[in-house]
Amino acid sequence: MNRLAHLSTAVALLAIGFAGGVWIAMPSATIKAQQTPEEPTAEPIQISDANAEKVKQASDVLETAQAALQQDGLYNAAIRGLNPYATLSGGLDAVADLEDGRGVDPITFAGLHAGLATDEVTTQLSYDANGRLTYKGKLVRIYSVNRLRESNRRQAAVIDVTKGGRRKIGAPRE
User: Fold this and answer.
1) d(CA 114, CA 131)
2) What is the CA radius of gyration of the chain?
3) Is 139 a member of any domain?
4) How many domains would you assign to the chain?
5) Is 85 among the domain residues?
6) How far is CA 97 from the centre of its chain?
7) CA-to-CA distance for 46 and 34, rounded, in angstroms?
8) Could you tell me if 87 and 66 are in contact, meaning their C-beta atoms sit under 8 angstroms apart?
9) What is the DSSP letter of 10?
10) Domain for residue 151, yes or no?
11) Domain limits for position 119
12) Residues 73, 105, 120, 40, CA torsion sign
């Protein structure tokens, strides 16, 4: 009996010590898995007036080029605003890419997640059970690596042509 009493006392002391250690180690504040972040405060941009003017000019030129591509039916936007990736690639159909479910360009992907979808696209966006963005039930993905490489080759070809090159898009370099 003496042995059982010693064993019971030892187990009780061990349990009390464990409970006390856990209680002391617990933080006093409640921790939530995902807290809603407050609106970030905009930090002042450290850019010279000359560089700011160059950025503005580049934005204006890209906006004009994007509008021309849309007018020619070469660019169908899924997001509001400028998409330099699509413009420098010579255009793309972001809505068709969403419909196909095979991925979208990086700027469209970021824009959709940032809430910049066009009204037409917004009505078809939702989230799946895992919290991932979907379009008409299909997971919104970024282009595959091969498609990104293809787009980058198109960009290089478009830029080369605009600099006086005579090569057609997709034609190999000499």
Assistant:
1) 14
2) 28
3) yes
4) 1
5) yes
6) 16
7) 31
8) yes
9) H
10) yes
11) 50-162
12) negative
142 pairs with which residues across the strands? 104
Looking at the domain assignment, is residue 23 inside a domain?
no
What's the rounded Cα separation, in Å, for the pair 114 and 107?
A: 10
Nearest C-alpha neighbor of 98 from the set 115, 114, 122, 131: 122
Residues of the chain with pLDDT below 70 are: 1, 11, 14-15, 19-20, 22-41, 162-174
Each residue of 54-99: pLDDT tens digit? 999 999 999 999 999 999 999 999 999 999 999 999 999 999 999 9
pTM: 0.67
Task: Say how far apart CA 78 and CA 80 lie, in whole Å.
Answer: 7
Tokens 């503005």 -> residue? 56
Max intra-chain CA distance, the chain: 100
For residues 133 and 109, what is the distance between their CA atoms, to the nearest angstrom?
Answer: 10
Place of tokens 């290089």: 156
Rounded to 5 degrees, φ, ψ at 172 are -70, 150
CB 133 within 8 A of CB 113: yes
Dihedral sign for Cα 44, 55, 151, 68, please.
Answer: positive
- Residues 93 and 102: beta-carbon distance below 8 Å: no
